[in-house]
Specification:
7-stranded mixed beta sheet
Length: 295
């Protein structure tokens, strides 16, 4: 997915003007005095201007205040928003219909939905992902773009790394969803402890990877222990359904606690009555009851 041609043209007009401003301030590259001059220079030279800009983001405020090219208030607001840039190493992880996923696989992974400019990311780096790149992400009209330059690494990833990146992507989606605008405010977007716990319990790999976090969440909020048993009950039920059908059961109700079937009956009420008689009161809230239906 690319930015519209009209918006690409607008972005380059604003962004190149900002880079020229940086060069005039510090005389970094001789011969760059206008946006047109930038076309004559290789990326390596333009990158020097980018580096200075991101090292001194207050230059964005200076440009907006001085407004040397008499941009409109709307255009200045766009430029000012670039103070919320995200600079770092990302994995171009997945091509989706509306954007490309840039995965920031740090300690708390985040997944950004990024639009390309004149050329799609797939055309630039090919269909085989992931690709590791150094890039700068910018807000633009409530979307995220990159600043027109990125540096890919010539590395390949084995199965283990790909699996770890997929885990990071799933965690990022679970915590924050796909981030499609900047600035990103995690305290507003991060999911509840209950949603986190559901994600951690979703698969065996997740349960092994996040067992410490699972323990921490339950210790922090003992009410989550009910959710833990219910989610684990669902997982065990799926395993039991297959086995029970192999035995010959066709339509019955079952109760699971800590991975063990502790009661069964023809109706849900029947199972509840059995539990009432055999189970300590404090344990009843942890039981997961499911129905084995006819195929």
């Amino acid at each position: 997915m690319k930015l519209s041609k009209e918006n690409v043209k607008l972005f380059y007009r604003l962004y190149h003007s900002l880079l020229v401003y940086v060069n005039k301030k510090f005389k970094i590259v001789e011969g760059i005095n206008s946006s047109e001059d930038l076309r004559k220079f290789p990326i390596e030279e333009i990158d020097k201007l980018r580096s200075r800009l991101y090292k001194q983001p207050k230059l964005i405020d200076s440009f907006v205040q001085e407004n040397p090219l008499r941009f409109s208030s709307t255009e200045l607001e766009m430029i000012s928003s670039w103070k919320n840039f995200v600079k770092g190493t990302f994995y171009i992880f997945r091509y989706l219909k509306n954007y490309t996923i840039f995965l920031d696989a740090d300690k708390t992974p985040k997944a950004y939905g990024v639009l390309a400019l004149t050329t799609t990311f797939e055309e630039m780096v090919g269909p085989y992902l992931p690709i590791m790149v150094d890039a700068v992400l910018l807000p633009f009209n409530d979307k995220i773009i990159y600043d027109s330059i990125f540096s890919p690494y010539s590395v390949t990833f084995g199965r283990g790394i790909r699996r770890s990146l997929n885990d990071a992507y799933q965690e990022a989606k679970s915590r924050f969803g796909i981030i499609t605008s900047l600035p990103f405010e995690p305290q507003r977007m991060e999911q509840s402890d209950a949603d986190k716990l559901k994600f951690y319990l979703r698969s065996e790999r997740n349960r092994e990877r996040y067992w410490e976090e699972i323990d921490r969440l339950i210790a922090k909020n003992p009410e989550l222990l009910i959710l833990y048993h219910q989610e684990m009950g669902k997982i065990h039920a799926r395993r039991y359904v297959k086995k029970l059908r192999e035995i010959g059961f066709t339509d019955a109700w079952f109760a699971i606690l800590e991975g063990i079937i502790i009661a069964s009956g023809m109706t849900k009420d029947c199972v509840k009555r059995i539990l009432q008689d055999i189970l300590p009161t404090e344990k009843k809230k942890f039981v997961y009851i499911f129905r084995l239906r006819k195929k």
